[in-house]
């Protein structure tokens, strides 16, 4: 089977186009994450990027671990094409701990972790037709103490 120059150039163009579309999607997600990190202040970003693609109105679950004795901020971000996200936080027994819909539609949640635990963050778009990048960013703070003794 001989490949003509026209077939080779068409195949090459298809590969380049596919790469460009994939890179564009990653760039959009990167901008969503960058915007979310800026919203974490005054909390310190934990350095992890927890992102996913939401589509067809199906919920996305992200499992995160939290340490005892720290203040946390969960910041939820999404592309404009996804729209406003609703999110729920579930404990290890699938019991709802927080629901953004019943809390006025906030895109973040601040809490103190009394114990080391894993929580599930469930993200859902109100639109069945939405598709795009979503991210959950975690900020943390060490409790301030007037005690001159260092806690180890």
The tally of helices reads 1
Number of strands: 9
Gross morphology: globular
Largest sheet: 5 strands, antiparallel
Q: How do you describe this structure in short?
A:
18% of the residues are buried.
Description:
The protein is of the alpha+beta class and 152 residues long. Helix content is 23%, strand content 37%. The chain has one helix at 5-39, and strands at 44-45, 50-55, 60-66, 71-78, 86-90, 96-99, 108-112, 117-124, 131-141. Strands 1, 2, 4, 7 and 9 form a five-stranded antiparallel beta sheet that branches. Strands 3-8-5-6 form a four-stranded antiparallel beta sheet, with no helix packed on it. Strand 5 (86-90) and strand 6 (96-99) form a beta hairpin. The protein is globular and about 75 Å long.
